[in-house]
Amino acid sequence: MLNPDYKLMLIAWLGVALWVGFVIFSNRKIHPKALFTLFMVELWERFSYYGMRALLILYMTANLVDGGFQFDDAKAFGIYGAYGALVYLTPILGGYFADKLIGFRRAIAFGAILMAAGQFTLFANNQTTFFIGLALLVVGNGFFKPNISSMIGRFYADGDKRRDGAFTLFYMGINMGAFLAPLTCGAIGENEGWQYGFLTAGIGMLLGFIIFFLASRTSVFQNIGLAPDEKPAKNVVSFVPNSILPYVAAAVMVGCSLLLIQHETVVDYMLGALAVIIIGYLLFQASKMELVAKQRIWVVVLLLLFTTIFWTFFELAGSALNLFTARNVDKMLFGFEMKTTYFQSFNPLYIMLFAPVFSWIWIKLSNLNKEPAAPYKFGTGLLLLGLGFLVLKFGGSYAKLGMVPAIFMALLYLLHTLGELALSPVGLSLVTKLSPKHMVAFMMGIWFLSSSIAHQGGKHIAKLTTVNEKSIVEGASFQNADIDKDIKAVLSEKTFKDKLEKSSVESILVSDAFIERLNKLNPQRQYAKSVVTIKETLEDAENYSGTKKDNIVKSAIQEFLSFKGNEVNTQVATFADYESLVEKSPEMAIVNVIKGESLNKGLSVFTMLGFIAIGCGIVLFLMGPFITRWMHGVK
């Protein structure tokens, strides 16, 4: 019997395959073949990127026994933030090298190879190769990401009416890959082992490279994307470089990225200094301009601040919100038990559904001469972002045993996506219109820098949600809760408090040393360990063989603390019966307090973010007339 997760995965792939076929068939006479080739290459690259992104924070924080590194939350958030920040920095250099030295084709191929190598390095599943893999992904993205978009633009002359449609199709490919990735890499990673999720992501990137390489050996790309000094006759991807410099630089960038990801606080200072220098330079340049240009630059700087706030909060999806989903969301949705990673598919799904709606709305309003100015679109985006967080807070009132119903997380991602659709498409277009012609490229680079700062800044917010079970046990809420006083006393002893630094409370409660200490403390009331084997999990194991089957059988065996005389040993029970037994056990009150504290901490931070985002949105609406006036007719 096929695993339900894999059934869902196959259905998703079938649906996307049919849609891709329809898109290509219906547009085959409108656009050049190169567009559809690059569409497929980008689909696989985004599949690789978002597959890895869905797994990364879960992999780093997973227990050693579950195949993870068991990093504490703060360390994992720091690594994730530094990785995300560098991913948005390296395209500045990758784009430069492609434009000046090696051309789009070699840059794209080189970046794809580096990213595939990075995913396969993560598959090795040890800490040394883990950081090397992240560094390869960072640099590979720098060579790949800016150049595939630029290459598409070269197939259309200025003013070509097909150009916007081409980028719309390309954007669709991005979101198709992003939608499939969590349902595929996530399903495989959570079911078979984290490293197999990374392997799947690597295979996806390799497929993208193969498609690009084979197309480059034909006339599909015409003479587009060749190196500046390369003759059209050499219409083949070749790794004999026009200049050795980009490849030497790539090696240096991998080394630097490796160090920066492991020492993520350095990235704080680096980006902080860079931001101060750039903003200072911008304002200095603006002071020398005539009034209209000066005020437009100030508008860009102001909106840059708000867009950085938006992306800082929005990009918590891969870090703090991902861990919150794993720990504090009841993942049963419409009768189907979701994997944690599946929630990462909501955003691209919503984009595919609602992007055409937003496009239609703006066109309709524009025809009526009622399309809102950019500040109001930005404000709407921030309001929707804030409402998403507040919906999650509202969902907390329906939480049971510290678990929020999944529907509220789905609604959060819906509102966040609608906010993205209101704000994101406006930004880049506005920068090109407001910037002086001689500064457009520089201003575009600054706009992308805001995403880098957002990832790095987001780690500090994510760290506010970290859960330390030792602190919870020592805290007033735990000590005042209706918990067995013997268990409280033993957990408060230094030996077991120290163990909480590296082990969960649940694992300590069923350890022989803990139970022995409990029984010595109170000989009149004895404790024992219960062992229950869950029937449904055993039945699921029959669908597999070998090591995978053995691991599922092991996971079916659950242990919990009981009073002596009430314990059960090696009993096979349904999951419902197991839950009933645990609810009557002395450890249930502890689990409830810990989950409750985790829930409250996360919701308090997300609520704060919600009000900040809404406040920023209101400020933009109030400043709208003033900002619009300083734009001097630019829409």
Features:
635 residues; mainly alpha; Growth Hormone, Chain: A; 3 domains; three-stranded mixed beta sheet; two-stranded parallel sheet; 25 helices; 7 strands; 73% helix; protein transport; peptide transmembrane transporter activity
How would you explain this protein's 3D organization?
This protein is mainly alpha-helical and 635 residues long. It is 73% helix and 4% strand. It folds into three domains: 1-242, Growth Hormone, Chain: A; 263-464 and 592-635, Up-down Bundle (Growth Hormone, Chain: A), CATH 1.20.1250; 469-591, no CATH class. The protein contains 25 helices and seven strands. Helix 10 (291-314) runs antiparallel to helix 14 (406-434). The radius of gyration is 27 Å and the shape is globular. 44% of the residues are buried. The model is unreliable at 232-237 (pLDDT under 50). InterPro entries: Dipep/tripep_permease, MFS_trans_sf, MFS_Transporters, POT_fam, PTR2_symporter_CS. This is MFS transporter. It is a multi-pass membrane protein. Belongs to the major facilitator superfamily. Proton-dependent oligopeptide transporter (POT/PTR) (TC 2.A.17) family.
